[in-house]
Write a structure and sequence with these properties.
Elements lengths: L6 E5 L5 E5 L8 E4 L3 E4 H7 L7 E3 L4 E4 L11 E2 L5 E6 L2 E6 L10 E2 L27
Parallel strand pairs: 7-10
Antiparallel strand pairs: 1-2, 3-9, 4-6, 5-6, 8-9
């Protein structure tokens, strides 16, 4: 796997492995683009039985499976108090810093809506944790 510039994969206190900044990122600047195997949304639903999902929907027809051909961004964990957000622009999935991120910090986003069941528990540890990965 070729990592996106400025990223490192390390053990996470949130879950398994996480995606960490190896360089500082400024607020509102691009961190990286999500990469992976382009699959239909029907195929994404077929793969949704996996324990670890690394699939992001691009539009109403296509998704990317980061576990195949990903660049490390598929290790970005969920947090109810994230330091980044995901933006889809012209069928490209981009991660943007919500605030200045220092080198060494784990990059997190609020997943909000995933292929996981709505009762999938959140383990982010934030004081304001809502208790579930998806907003229900």
């Amino acid at each position: 796997m070729k990592l996106a510039h400025g990223l490192a994969i390390k053990p996470s206190t949130i879950h398994g492995r996480g995606c960490f900044a190896s360089v500082p990122f400024k607020k509102r600047h691009k961190i990286a683009e999500y990469t992976g195997e382009k699959i239909s949304n029907a195929e994404a639903r077929r793969r949704s039985h996996r324990r670890m999902l690394r699939i992001c929907e691009v539009n109403n027809r296509w998704s990317l499976d980061g576990s195949r051909g990903g660049n490390g961004t598929h290790y970005i964990n969920h947090s109810c108090t994230p330091n980044a957000f995901m933006q889809i622009l012209y069928d490209h999935i981009l991660f943007i810093a919500l605030r200045d991120i220092e080198a060494g910090e784990e990059i997190t986003i609020d997943y909000q809506s995933t292929l996981h069941s709505d009762d999938k528990r959140c383990i982010c540890g934030a004081r304001t944790c809502r208790g579930t990965i998806n907003i229900v």
